[in-house]
Structure formats: C-alpha cells, structure tokens
Design goal:
about 100 residues; mainly beta; three-stranded antiparallel beta sheet; about 0% helix
Length: about 100
C-alpha cells in the first residue's frame, strides 16, 4: 500500500528599500531680501513617513508636497529672507518597518 502525504509550507518575503532623503537649495548664496527654495526628496519602500523639515529644534511647514508611489518631494519657499532665516536646516523621515530617522 502506498501512503501519500502532502506537506505544504509557504514563505512570505517583504522587500524593504531603506529611506533615502535629500535636501537641496536652489541657490548657494542667499542675500537678505532675496527668495530661495529648499527641496526635500524622500524615497523608500514602504513609503516613508513625512518628511519633516527642521530648523534647529523647530519644525518648519512645507509650502507644498507632491507624492508618488514611493517618493515624495516637498518644498519650502522663503521670500524676503532675513537674518532670522539663517540656520541649519534638516529634512528627516521615517521608514515604518525600520523605525529609524533618515536625516539629510
């Protein structure tokens, strides 16, 4: 007598692309009273949370954001730049599976 058994196993894999964050300014020299734009681009899979633009310890609101499937591009336009706009700016995001900040 032939006895047959079937043992099925499944494996689920998840693809994770670490968050990539870039922050660029449209000008390298910025004069008082001028206008400039910061652009933060974030990519990853699953799509990263955010991004958040930081001026030191203070978050700054983006002027606009355009989101694609795994990519988001956000801009902050500064007009009539003054001395109070001088700072170190950082763009940060989180990838939900990894749970880590990806600063730029």
């Amino acid at each position: 007598n032939l006895i047959s058994t079937s043992d099925t196993k499944s494996l689920t894999t998840k693809y994770v692309m670490p968050s990539k964050t870039e922050l660029e300014a449209d000008k390298s020299l910025i004069w008082k009273g001028s206008t400039f734009t910061l652009t933060c681009t974030v990519e990853g899979y699953p799509p990263p949370e955010g991004p958040t633009l930081w001026k030191g310890q203070t978050s700054v609101t983006f002027t606009s954001c355009d989101a694609g499937t795994n990519k988001k591009v956000c801009t902050k336009k500064f007009t009539n730049v003054g001395y109070d706009d001088a700072a170190v700016y950082e763009c940060k995001t989180k990838n939900t599976l990894r749970g880590t900040d990806s600063p730029s």
